[in-house]
Amino acid sequence: MLNVCxxxxxxxxxxxxxxxxxxxxxLRLVSAVARRSAGRDLxxxxxxxxxxxxxxxxxxxxLDSAEADVVVDYTAHDVVRAHVDEAVRRSLGVVVGSSxxxxxxxxxxxxxxxxAGVGVIASGNFSVTAAMAQAAAVLVAEHLPSSEVIDYxxxxxxxxxxxxxxxxxxxxxxxxxxTLARSLxxxxxxxxxxxxxxAGTQVHSVRLPSFVVSTEVVFGLPDERLxxxxxxxSSAAPYVAGTLLAVRxxxxxxxxxxGLDTLLTSDAG
Length: 269
What we know:
Blueprint: E1 2-7, H1 12-23, E2 27-33, E3 36-37, E4 40-41, H2 48-51, E5 55-56, H3 59-65, E6 70-73, H4 80-89, E7 93-96, H5 103-116, E8 119-122, H6 128-141, E9 147-153, H7 163-175, E10 196-198, E11 201-207, E12 213-221, E13 224-231, H8 238-249, E14 255-258, H9 260-265
Parallel strand pairs: 1-2, 1-6, 2-5, 6-7, 7-8, 8-14, 9-11
Antiparallel strand pairs: 3-4, 9-12, 10-11, 12-13
Helix pairs in contact: 1-8, 4-5, 6-7
């Protein structure tokens, strides 16, 4: 039985994950974390009788209150790094569903986690279908040299690009940087219109009402193109199964593993 602390347990995805942990026979929800908003503890929206465990304002307080084996983080880009560092410092496994961590962050976390002998599994998207889309894109990138990523999300999303799009771009760059017919330096007009370059791939972030998170990678050859796209629906349910898979696997991991597709298509962990 693994003891789990869920940070962001009253959020859109975090709440569904916490409920998934509670419903699993081999996992136990021992504590939860929710930040304060407008002077009101969001834990009140899901009180102790409903959640079944205390809701704390910080990861440190939650981990002090009950012994945990794994911390799951579905919080925000501006606090996730501190949460991961706190868990690793305590030699706990971590599953990260929050966006906002850079490649440099992951390098540092990997070093610290490896030294501590614990694992960190991070994915921009814990949906199984999103993981398969990413795995397919990496396979295609081995054969098609030119691609760009389009990242769609709701108008209120603060960070760009989404964790899903950033992870995808970095994985594509790991295969090979995309080939640009015209260099950015040789572009006429505002170069920002060509998107941001992430690991050698141009990424374009669209923020409009009606989107949850959609990620598309477009590969092009003369006279033909291939698009691979994942669209998230209005429910957080698709992310629960992948997150719980990572929770169960993280005790066997050392250092950082990035991407649910890595867990599904390799022997990582």
